[in-house]
C-alpha cells in the first residue's frame, strides 16, 4: 500500500523537471537511487541525469527506513510513500512535498489522484498520516502473526523477511512503541555495508537459469535457499528457474576477475557447518569470503 501525491504546475509555461531541481528540494544528506525490473528491490545509487521513466528512491542515510519514491509524469512531480513505514520517512516525505509546492508556487497538491489538499493543511495531513501509519503497522503485525505469515518489508536498501518469532514479540507492543522498535530494526538491518545477493535470470535453450554472485572479500547477504523474489523478479508470473547456480568471482594477481559457476545447492551444502549469522528469515550473512574459501567451493 502506498500514499501517492502529485504536485501539478500551474500556468502555460511549466518548468522542466530535472534531477538538479529534485535535489534542490531535498536535504543535503539525502542519497538518490533507483531500482530496475530485476533488482529484487535492491537500492542502486542513481548515476544518470536522465530521470524520464525512472522511479527515484530517496534514502536518508541517517535513518535507513523505507524511504520514498519520486517520479515525473510529464510536467507533474509525483511522489509515493510505501506503508507501513517509519515516522522519519513520513516526515521526509511531507518535507519534500512542502518544498516542491513552494518551488512551483502552488497552494494545493493532489492525493490519491483526486483529493485536493491545501498546502496550509499539509502539517495536519502529515500528523494524520503519521497517526494512521502507526495504527496500520500495529494491525498488520498482529494480522500477520495471527495467520503465521512472514512480514516482507521492502526497505530502502533491500527487502527484509521478518520472522514469526519477531512478529510474536512485536504483536505485544503498543502501537507507539512498535513504531520505534520497527524504525530501529530497519535502520539496524540496513546500516551495515553488505552486498545483497539478488538473483538474475536467463534462458538457455529450454532451461530457465537463476544465478547468484558471490565476490571475493565482499561481505554478503546470502539466501538460505534459492528463491524467486516477490514482485520484482523480472520473470513472468508462474515461471521459475529449473537450474540455480552461484557465480564465484575471484581476483587473481595482476589479472582480470575470473568467474566459475557451481550449483547453488552445492554451495549450501559446503557452508552448512559454518554457523553463519542470520540476517533475516531467508538469509544469512557471509563475511569476507577469501580467495581460498571461494576456491574450495569449486573442489
TrEMBL record:
What Pfam family is a match for this entry? Answer: DUF4299
Annotated InterPro entries: DUF4299 (IPR025387)
Q: Which domain of life is it from?
A: Bacteria
Q: What is this protein called?
A: Uncharacterized protein
The species is: Myroides marinus
Amino acid at each position: 500500500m502506498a500514499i501517492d501525491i502529485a504536485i501539478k504546475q500551474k500556468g502555460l509555461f511549466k518548468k522542466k523537471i530535472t534531477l538538479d531541481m529534485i535535489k534542490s528540494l531535498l536535504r543535503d544528506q539525502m542519497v538518490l537511487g533507483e531500482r530496475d525490473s530485476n533488482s529484487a528491490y535492491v537500492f542502486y545509487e542513481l548515476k544518470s541525469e536522465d530521470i524520464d521513466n525512472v522511479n527515484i528512491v530517496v534514502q536518508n542515510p541517517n535513518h535507513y527506513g523505507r524511504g520514498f519514491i519520486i517520479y515525473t509524469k510529464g510536467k507533474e512531480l509525483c511522489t509515493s510513500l510505501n506503508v507501513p513505514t517509519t515516522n522519519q520517512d513520513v516526515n521526509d516525505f511531507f518535507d519534500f512535498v512542502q518544498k516542491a509546492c513552494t518551488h512551483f508556487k502552488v497552494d494545493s497538491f493532489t492525493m490519491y489522484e483526486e483529493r485536493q489538499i491545501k498546502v496550509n493543511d499539509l502539517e495536519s495531513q502529515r500528523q494524520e498520516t503519521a497517526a494512521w501509519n502507526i495504527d496500520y503497522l500495529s494491525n498488520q503485525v498482529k494480522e500477520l502473526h495471527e495467520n503465521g505469515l512472514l512480514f516482507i518489508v521492502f526497505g530502502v536498501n533491500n527487502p527484509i523477511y521478518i520472522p514469526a518469532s519477531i512478529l510474536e514479540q512485536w504483536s505485544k507492543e503498543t502501537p507507539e512503541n512498535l513504531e520505534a522498535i520497527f524504525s530501529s530494526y530497519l535502520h539496524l538491518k540496513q546500516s551495515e555495508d553488505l552486498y545483497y545477493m539478488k538473483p538474475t535470470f536467463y534462458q538457455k535453450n529450454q532451461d530457465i537459469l537463476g544465478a547468484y554472485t558471490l565476490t571475493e572479500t565482499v561481505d554478503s547477504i546470502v539466501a538460505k535457499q534459492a528463491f524467486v523474489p516477490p514482485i520484482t523478479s523480472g520473470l513472468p508470473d508462474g515461471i521459475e528457474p529449473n537450474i540455480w547456480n552461484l557465480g564465484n568471482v575471484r581476483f587473481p594477481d595482476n589479472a582480470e576477475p575470473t568467474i566459475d559457476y557451481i550449483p547453488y545447492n552445492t554451495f549450501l551444502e559446503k557452508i552448512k557447518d559454518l554457523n553463519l549469522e542470520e540476517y533475516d528469515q531467508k538469509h544469512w550473512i557471509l563475511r569476507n569470503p577469501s580467495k581460498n574459501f571461494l576456491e574450495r567451493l569449486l573442489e
